[in-house]
Write the structure tokens for this entry.
Amino acid sequence: MKDMNEQLSAIVDNELIDEQLINELLINKDKQDQFSRYHLIGDVIRGDVADQFLDIDISQQVMAKIKQQDTNDFVVVDEPPKKIAQQTENNNNVISFVKRFGQYAIAASVAGVVVLTSLMTSEPTIDNNSGLEVLKTVPFGGANPVSLQANKKQSQQDAKEHNERLEALLNDHQLQLQAQP
Amino acid sequence: MKLRLYFSTLVAALLVFISSGAFALQSTEAVAAKIEKKEGLTAIEYLQLMQTAYKNSNYEILYLNNLKNTAEPKQLIHGVINQEEIAYFRYLNGVMRESLQYRGKISYFEQGSQAYTLQSTQNQSVFANIANFDYDKGDAFYDYIILGKGRIAGKTAMAIRMISKDQYRYSYIVWIDTDSYLPLRLDTLNNANIILEQIMVVSLQVSGKINPWLESLSHQQLPELINFSQTSNHQASLWKVGWLPTGFRVVKDDQHKLVMYQNEPVSYIMLNDGIVSVSVYIAAKKIALENKQKIIQRGATVLYTYQKNNFEINVIGEIPVATAKRLIESISMVK
């Protein structure tokens, strides 16, 4: 069982594509639940949950869920796992990022992908005393305590939007470099 | 018996040693024969030889871009066809990302996206900024100093330091192959001598003739050309920069739309000192920040945001924070 869980976890991380396991996933409801939970855990770690439940206080939601632990209704299990897998792909920052900016972004990404990836993984600063934001590329860089996310939602949303604009500026900067006189 | 065994291994070892030595000798001779070796060059002469070699040789390099704790492996194949440069570039890890630059056009190919071409007369390859720099002119704001010999990518290299004469730009150390004069390593340093960014060649191959595969690429039909200048109205920005660090000049001044961000109109000024280009964006403030200013730094690149009244200024480029700050302070509207 534990081994099976590990394999599930690997699928979530796109590390393992085992047809047999996927077939089992398609028929076994317990496995589907497990699979969805792993996805949720992954999303929480990456700090993506804020995007999914845009205006919902997550901490309260979590408390509510703990109370009625038996029911698993907060994860979508009706959908076949394959679709879930697709959803995660869409949640992946990199892919949505490229789609959002269309073809021009690629020129920039080839030229200046280093700067871009750094911004993608960056989260708005919370305790910003010095006014200096140094970006990291550590995978968990974006994860903030759940309560913090809930409190600072508005300013975070603003900062996130602002960062999007900065990304666009960086892209434009790269494009301008190409067309330099 | 024991002695005999010992003797035979010794002979075998010796044979291996000789043959490998001969190979090494052959390959270095082949390269050295083409380029006349010069002794006692000055720092600026080394740099200028590097420029010529980078533009006029046929070579292939594998290199790493080191930034903080990450390294990105990349490849560049360069050749010359009828005195025209052709350069193929790709990322070696992850999604396929390639570019081909030839005859004033650069094409981008990325896995899963439509390929396209842009007009670009400037060389966009890795060492292009130091290869295109006017070192005689640059004498006014850099000191060139020979640091000594080192070894990079298995080759003897001469390290040359370009020290900025003021605190408004970064300094560099360039390692140049003493055989081919091609650049092997470039460090970008701040004035505390901390390496901000590093480009490190790990393999260099120079050949007399152009790589046949690269030559075949030159006949390839290019993807659709995208005319980027259409987003600009070709009018001056209505803003001016009151202060420029020595050596910098305004190379672009226009108003254009951010194609990647809701077609937002921005006023744009580009500054250049021959090595780095700095973009200045002035636009209406849309999202008010908690702090008036925000500084993002990664490697040598700084992104300085400053909000004042109802507009926002952004400065992007490989310059120290102090330079970005002073630039922003000097920006005013054209009367």
Notes: Residues 14-35 of chain B have pLDDT under 50 and may be disordered. Chain B touches chain A through 59 residues (CB under 8 Å). The first helix of chain B runs from residue 2 to 34. The CA atoms of residues 68 and 235 of chain B lie 39 Å apart.
